Amino acid sequence: MSPGLSYVVIRSHALMADLLTPDQMRILAAQRSLEGFIDYLAQTPYGRISVDTEGDKSLALEKVFYQKFIERMMSIVDLAPANIGDFLQSYYYQRFEVINLKRIIRGKYSGIPVSQIMESLIPIAPYRIKSYEDLVEAETFQDSVRWLEGTPYASLVSTLELSEKYDALWPLEITLSHLNASAVFKSLEHLPQRDRGLVRRIVQAEADVENFLVAAKQRGARDRTHSPEEMFPATYGINLDMLREAMEADDIRSVIEGLRSPYNEILVPLYEGDVALIRSRIRQHVYDIAKKGRFANDFGFNVVMAYLVFSEIEKDDLVGVAWGKTQGIPAEDILKYLAIPNFAY
Amino acid sequence: MSATTGVRPTKGYLMEMKRRIGFIERGTEFLKLKRDHLAKELTASIDVLKGRRRLLLENLRVAYRAVTAAYISLGPTEVRSQASSLKTGLELEVLPRAVMGVRYPFIKVEKEPQIAGELDITLSEAAEKVLAILEDILQLAEFEARAERIADELGKTNRKVNALENTIIPSYRQVIKFIEDKLDEESLEELVRMKLIGGALARRRE
Predict the structure, then answer these.
(1) pTM
(2) How far apart are the CA of B64 and the nearest CA of chain A, in angstroms?
(3) CATH number at residue B103
(4) Predicted local distance difference test score (pLDDT) of residue A268
């Protein structure tokens, strides 16, 4: 164990105490108003949050929770030893950069004002590109994409033709997702052999469920422009045959029942078309993987990964609760879709 | 002020009054027919509205739950960002229609949003649920506007019928009676006068 890793592990252990407990999350979801939510949050390590009274408060709160998560993540990722740091940067920084690139391209495509596009970005510095401003200020969305020539996202430029042909953004979004997945898997090689298992389980479970959801969405589509091989260049626990079966199935239930555990449990809400619940379940599954990984080795990389996973799930849950509170959604309707209070489904 | 104030008790005026009251009574009958028809339309509309509203509320609840789930799952910024990538939005045309002269809006869907491919499956499921009931929402809105305007017109027609039956027609009848009484009185006076003159002339001849 390198001295660098020891420090990061100890730091992760210490920061773990700042995470909200399932009970605290339940109390936050049960608050009757946004003011109650902010007041209760002030009693947690988040402290008193000031939200601009003008504009959409849920967007302002989302930004605050993202900033908090990014702070936590950077305090770990930037101090991690090179091999672990490389992986974590790809896993987090590049993922957020890809999300921002998708938002910029969508904004440019629909002609949203520059300020509004900038407002929608996750507040994190660019990772593989020089700046977001140049992309946002480009004349057209095609110009924004062409601006990525010479960056790790250069393959987007060749996808532009397909995007223009269908007058749609999905070819660009699929390419961006694949670029991110490839980068994460490539950076896995930097991790020591013993630490790869945990990350692989997390990344693969997320990718498998996403692949299955994309396949399920294709059911009944008449004009499929992509073959399953093109749509799913990387498959893991749910292979291409299963995905093909899901795309062609009249009844998705039989396909899901044929999947191995945990997918046959995670994907059950698809019977009712409740995809959001599947996302909540996959978060719970990832939470479970990280927790078990931590139990297996409480003095290594697993602790760092567990802290970051818990922290990100907490951020996602808080964003959901904050939006629910601004809309006056009843607690039970919010709690249903949270991961932390429902952990161990 | 009495209805008979300033009334000229002449035969010509009486005939004019009788012509007018005939016209008003015919108008009142038409208004009564309109009132009955509007009441029938309103009852039918309310029955349809009740049924449709109950069904739509249930479907709306399902769609709203799906939208809520999408927001909680993806976060508001991501939902907005994805929704903004839809180039073909909903396009409507509002045209006028009329029943018994009552105008109400008719909503025609010109173009529906194309959600295939562009949205995340969570959002796409929610959008599909909203799209599925979009036509029902528009039809219900149209029906509600129709029922509201029919009810409004029914109220107005009813007030007109009541005013005609309870105020205008009785006042005309009062005027007619007044003129007829006056004219009868005058003709009686005339008869008495003629008799008196006739008696006086007979006495002078004797």
Answers:
(1) 0.80
(2) 11
(3) 1.10.287.3240
(4) 94
